[in-house]
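Expect chain and fold; thus:
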Amino acid sequence: MTAGLILAAGRGTRFGGGKMLAEIDGRPMLQHVLDRAAEAELRPVIVVLGDDADQIEAAVAWRGGETRVRNPDPSRGISSSVALGLGELRDDVDRVLVLLGDQPFLTLENCRVITAAPRDPAKPIVAPRYDGVPGNPVLLERAAWPLATQLIGDRGMVQIFAAHPELIRYVDVQGDNPDIDTAADLATLSRGGG
């Protein structure tokens, strides 16, 4: 079973706050990521929210199957959300696709390419490459979860890539999957400038 872990607890400081609620095609940014997880048939889906959890919970169309957890200290960075989300997964889940709430343009096809990567106990982490550059979302087999829970700060999976390159399998995927870090990013990508 492949679960989804959506990281949406960041404060969006560079964006000016409220990033997960910023509208793209009339829907909150996070809604696009939730919809992609549902289309990719990820189960269960854990969503880690932060300080603006109340506003997000009210604005997003939930399907009822998501588990929503609140990061009590989002200032500790994305690493704390990864550890919190992994801790919510049941024993029957053996792999999880870690999605970022600020990547609303991720395609279903790319999710499927990543999750279709064959299992390899020697390389329990699958990362996509966009034009040769590693990116997100990252698929973690259960064997890699202890490493993921040891992440520090706000640099995410790149820490594992640097420390344990021997554990990574790369799959080449089409297009790109940009982060939206600033309002300018959103304006450019919404105009098709990605």
Notes: The first strand starts at residue 2 and ends at 8. Residues 2-190 form a domain with the Spore Coat Polysaccharide Biosynthesis Protein SpsA; Chain A fold (CATH 3.90.550.10). The CA atoms of residues 48 and 81 lie 6 Å apart.
